[in-house]
Fold this sequence. Notes:
By secondary structure, the protein is mainly alpha-helical. The chain contains two helices and no strands.
Amino acid sequence: MAPRLTIHHAVAVLAVVLALAVFQMMNRMGVPGKIAWGSAILSILVVAIFWSATNLGADDEDDE
C-alpha cells in the first residue's frame, strides 16, 4: 500500500525546492559558500515557522 501524501509533505517538498533555488541563485551571484548554505537553510526555517504558525491557528477552529 502506497503511503498517503498530505499537504504537509507538499509544503516540505516545496521548502526544499525553495532552498535549492536560493542556493543556486546565491552561487550564480558569486556569494561565498557559507552564506549560500546559510541562506538555503534560513529559507527552510522560514517556511517551517510559517507553516507551524498556520497550523497552530487552524487547530483552534476544530475544537468547537
